[in-house]
């Protein structure tokens, strides 16, 4: 496992060891000691959530929750957009098996499936709660270059406030 810093403070991209075999592949997607040695802050997983998405083009909004996240697809591919809410800085990633992200609490994260039959894992260090900040994934200020697919998203995500409105609400 190797961790790479990104342009957003605290956000780390992780290369996992994907080992091909005659049947497909094997990966150790989460190993606390190896991740700590690679530079991931101490991280005690309390909940593991899995999302299965049948189609490419499914987009889930920009949500910032009060917990750290470790994100990794185990099948398919995802385009991920991470937003630093104070500065509006955006960093995007294309992830597949063999990739992971460590996303510190407070950063907004969103994803769009780019392949059918995608399985996306979310390991979090606090139990899920409805507390979150939501930002419109189509906010022109963010100018996220979403994949050129027919996108499907919830009205709730599309109706989320712009980043400027979120900043005003928090002030």
Poorly predicted spans: none
Going by CATH, what is the homologous superfamily?
A: Jelly Rolls
Task: Please indicate the percent range of residues in DSSP E strands (runs of 2 or more).
Answer: 35-45%
Global morphology: globular
**Helical segment tally?**
3
What would CATH call the architecture? Sandwich
Order of strands across the widest beta sheet? 1-2-10-7-12-5
Number of strands: 13
Protein name: dTDP-4-keto-6-deoxy-D-glucose epimerase
InterPro entries: RmlC-like, RmlC-like_jellyroll, RmlC_Cupin_sf
Family: Belongs to the dTDP-4-dehydrorhamnose 3,5-epimerase family.
Please provide a brief summary of the model.
The protein has 171 residues and is mainly β. The protein has helices spanning 32-38, 155-158, 163-170; strands at 2-5, 12-15, 18-21, 24-27, 47-53, 59-64, 69-75, 78-84, 89-95, 99-103, 108-113, 118-124, 133-135.
Q: What is the topological layout?
A:
Layout: E1 2-5, E2 12-15, E3 18-21, E4 24-27, H1 32-38, E5 47-53, E6 59-64, E7 69-75, E8 78-84, E9 89-95, E10 99-103, E11 108-113, E12 118-124, E13 133-135, H2 155-158, H3 163-170
Antiparallel strand pairs: 1-2, 2-10, 3-4, 5-12, 6-11, 6-13, 7-10, 7-12, 8-9, 8-11
């Amino acid at each position: 496992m190797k961790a790479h810093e990104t342009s957003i403070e605290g956000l780390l991209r992780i290369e996992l060891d994907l080992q091909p075999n005659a049947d497909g592949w094997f990966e150790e997607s989460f190993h606390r000691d190896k991740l700590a040695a690679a530079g991931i802050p101490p991280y005690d997983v309390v909940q593991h959530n899995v999302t299965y998405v049948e189609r490419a083009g499914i987009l889930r909004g920009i949500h910032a929750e009060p917990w750290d996240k470790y994100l990794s697809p185990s099948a398919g591919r995802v385009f991920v957009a991470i937003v630093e809410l104070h500065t509006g800085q955006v960093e995007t990633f294309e992830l597949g098996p063999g990739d992971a992200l460590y996303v510190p609490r407070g950063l907004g994260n969103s994803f769009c499936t780019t392949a059918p039959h995608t399985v996306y894992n979310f390991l979090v260090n606090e139990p899920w709660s409805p507390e979150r900040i939501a930002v419109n994934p189509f906010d022109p200020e963010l100018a996220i270059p979403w994949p050129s697919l027919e996108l499907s998203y919830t009205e709730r995500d599309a109706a989320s406030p712009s980043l400027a409105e979120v900043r005003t609400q928090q002030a």
